[in-house]
Every structure is written in structure tokens, then in C-alpha cells.
Amino acid sequence: MISIDVIVGLQWGDEGKGKIVHAMADKYDVVARFQGGPNAGHTIYVNDRKIILHHLPSGIVSSCSYNIVGSGMVVDPSTLIEEIKALQSVVPDVSDRLYLSYRAVLIMPTHTLLDRASERAKGDSCVGSTQRGIAPSYMDKTGRNALRIIDILRSDFESMYRRLKTKHLKLLKVYDAEDLIESLDSMEDKWFEAIEFMRSLHFVNEPYLWEKLDNVSVLAEGAQGTMLDIQWGTYPYVTSSNTISGSVSVGLGVSPKHIRKVIGITKAYTTRVGNGPFPTEMPEEIANVIRQRGGEYGSTTGRPRRCGWLDLVALKYATIINGVDELVITKTDVLTNFKPLKVAIDYDLNGRRIKEVIPYLEQVKPIYQDIEPWQSVSFKDKNFASFIDIIEGYLSVPVTMVSYGPRKEQIIKVKAKGTMAY
Ligand code: GDP
Ligand code: IMO
Ligand code: MG
Fold first, then answer.
1. Among 131, 159, 376, 407, whose Cα sits 20 to 30 Å from the Cα of 387?
2. 302, 374 in Cβ contact below 8 A?
3. Which of 5, 14, 76, 346 is catalytic?
4. Which is more confidently placed, 215 or 104?
5. pTM for the full model?
6. H or E element that contains 367
7. SS3 of 99, please?
8. Gap from CA of 235 to ligand 2 centroid (Å)
């Protein structure tokens, strides 16, 4: 019997999913990514070393035997190999415990160029993508043109590659972006070297792994966040995959019946990288303090993250869509002694008070409740306990972990409401 626990981001990404997966991974046989690609940047600390993972599951430095790059992902071989090589000094057996799904889609160098070209053409209304080739590669997947990992084992791989590249070059012309092609040769050299290395790795046809393993426990690691979901996020300012818990079944070839619980991660405030609506965004002078305290700069692109207050309306929406069973709140240390402190409890839509995430979220203004600042992240601090109570009460979901620092040990596990386990 397979049982799957799912970690999903409930906001616009960067909630601390990597840290939480790293903290939990030892208890599981398998950690698997099921969507997204190198747009993700999941930060973990190992022996004082900061490691940012883009494709590799954050269980890779734990004892679990299988780390899966799942079929719902898009994979850039150049970045993947850099990641593996960088990790080898910390985890010498990294490639022994790594399994690549045959069906994951390959991001080609021209996908990256097309991402840049498309963003440039959109001008001020660009999404603010990570420029990692995510949208163009998922477009080729749904357009039924993409190369998949299985294809690197075919003898005609290079001609398949050339055919798709020719199409991409035509598209770049349409974008008037031939200047971007300058860097293509060196990108391709690196890419084909990485493909060669990939041929030596383990591959997996996921459904049969689930069949083979008896009584297996799986931690499915989401990337991005619910508000960036292609369907349920703040479209069109979203990523190109389904980021929600329902995506696990599709991305890992497993029945949804096997999902045991969904663990939602939220920061104690909110951040967003890139463009698009963000109702609770703070004035820049407050955002700047949070950004400094919380180190809010993109793990993948280094861009300053936009910062805002916790948005309980959006969080409630995310808990409904994902079926969140347990909530983890991260970065509570960043708000210690922070004044003023508030959370959004309603939206104002043209003078009407609503509790609903609507398809054009730029139309709403948040209505806030003030929060008394806490002096320490401890349930003995009544203001901190009351902050957690407000969140649990609003969402009707228990908070089971509170994170107060980037390292995996910096977690308070909560047994029952307001009771500290350790
Ligand atoms: P992810 O994409 O969801 O894995 O999150 P990122 O790694 O992109 O961003 C989270 C950032 O916050 C990283 O720099 C983490 O090291 C850091 N972090 C995670 N949890 C905490 C926490 O509780 N407190 C503080 N101060 N930093 C945290
Ligand atoms: P993790 O897994 C935060 C954002 C980009 C942009 C939009 C589309 O680390 O939480 P894309 O490159 O996917 O086409 O960009 O989505 N974005 C993220 N923001 N964390 C991420 O991943 C993100 N992945 C994509 O900034 O606004
Ligand atoms: Mg991140």
C-alpha cells in the first residue's frame, strides 16, 4: 500500500517548502517533485552550507532511498547537472538515489530564449517569469511537440531535437528576437554535455515503482504556490503548471485515493516575485524592513521579493482547493516585535465586503484586523498563541508546525491546539 503526504505552498511560492520537506524527509521512503522545473528554488541548510535546489527533491540529503523527478516536471539538463555536481561534495551518492521520470519534458535552450523573447514582447504587462523556459516547454508539451527524457535514449534524438529547434527559431523571428540567438551555440554545447551525463542516471516509470514497493511512504514536494497555479492562481500572472495537491496524481502516476494528508505551508506574512495582483502588498518602507529581516530575495533569480501582510482570504481559498489537513507557518521569527502587525480578513469589492478570491484579484482592497506583536516565538507568549489561534479559527485547519529559522531544527511541533511538543 502506498501512502502519500503532500506538501504544497499556499501563497505565491517561497513559503519555505524546501526547509519543511528537508525536516520531514527522513520519515519517508520516497520524496518526489510532481510539477514545475528550475523556476523553483528550494533552500535547505546542510552543515552550515546553504543549498538551493531547482529540480532535485529536498529529500536528497536525507536517508530516503528514492528521490524522484516526476513526469509532471519540465527539466533543464544543464541546470540539473550543475545541481547534481554541486551536491556531490555534500551527498556523494546523490545520483544513486535519484530517479528521473521517462515522461518528464526537456527544456531546450531555445525554450529559454523563447521565454525571454515572449516576456520582452509583452513589455510592461510581462509576467515577470524566471526566464527558465517554463511556459514555452509546457506549451510544447500540451501542443504535443515536446521532447521527453525517454527520447535521450533514442538513436534519432538529435534529429528530433533539430526539428523542434527549427520551429523555435522561426518563432524567435516572429518575436523579432534574433539577437537572443547569439548565445545559443554555447548553451547547446553545455546542454548536450548534460544530456550525455543524464544517460548515466536512473530512470523511472512511476506507476510500476508504486506497484513494486510494498507499504511505501511518499512525500510529494510541491513547487511554486497555489496562487501561481495555472488554473486557480492570479491568471495570467501565474506559472504554467498545476501547483495544487490535485496535481500529484497526474504528476506522479498515482491514484488520488492514495493521498493520506495534505500539508499546506504559509509564511506568517506574504511575498510574491514577479508581476500580478497582490492585495495585501505593503508600502515600500515596511516591505523593505521585512525584506531585510526575512532575506526576501528570489532563490532562483535573486530578485527582491514583493512583501505583504498575511492574507487570510487567499489562504482560506488555498486550503479549500488543496484540501489542507495541516498547516505549517514559517518565518514567524521575522515578525517578532514587529509593529504594526495585521492580517487581511475580508476584501472590499466596490464597497461590498466579501470573503472570496475572485478571478481578477486586482479589483479588491483588503480589510485588516490588527495583531498584537509577540516578543518571542513561543506558545507561552500569549500574543503569539493568539496569532496562531486567529489563523486556525479562520481557516478551520490545525497548525501542526511553526518554523522560526532557516535550519531544519528550527521548528516547533504542535501536538494539539496550543500545546508545544518541543
Ligand atoms: P521554497 O521555495 O518554498 O522552498 O522557499 P525558498 O527557499 O525559496 O524561500 C524561503 C527562504 O526562507 C529561504 O531562504 C529559507 O532558508 C528561509 N526560511 C525558511 N523557513 C524560515 C523560517 O522559519 N525563518 C526564517 N528566518 N527563514 C526561513
Ligand atoms: P518555488 O518553488 C516564487 C513566479 C515567477 C513569475 C511566475 C511565472 O521556489 O516556490 P515562470 O518562470 O514559472 O514562468 O514564472 O511565477 N514563480 C515563482 N515565484 N517561487 C517559485 O518557486 C516560483 N516559480 C515561478 O516569479 O511571477
Ligand atoms: Mg523558492
1. 407
2. no
3. 14
4. 104
5. 0.97
6. strand 365-370
7. strand
8. 13
